[in-house]
User: What shape does this take?
Amino acid sequence: MSTETTEATRIEELAGRYSDAWNSQDLDAIMNLHTDDCVFVAHAEGTSPAEGSEAVREAFAGYLALLPDINFAERALRIGEDHWVAESTMTGTLAGSLELEGERLGSSGTRVEVACVDVIEVRDGLVARKHTYLDTLAMQRQLGAAR
Assistant: This one.
């Protein structure tokens, strides 16, 4: 087995553990798979990158509090030598309302289902950077945005 194949296998296994941790809503398990200097970027209007494990933990805790049953159903997984890209359908039920661009959307019990793409950079066998792209327009429509 070549070194490249071995690394791809390791990254694929990490991707599986990461997905399982998110789908179990286990913040500690999620964070145990990140580097101390990790960065999380949610590519949505009005969000700033979370830098460092404490800030990333806080950001993830916010998502888990908002969508306590969050789930990512994988549609495609692409593995590279130091990254993976996961296409999924993110579903969840709001535990409250969501503030987006100064507007309160949805309410407790509102269900969302949107396309999601995660681009994950790996360093030393851990997640170093996570870029998340959601179909925010579809989410806004599902939450009752006036647009």
Remarks:
- Residues 141 and 147 are 8 Å apart (CA to CA).
- The chain has one domain: 3-142.
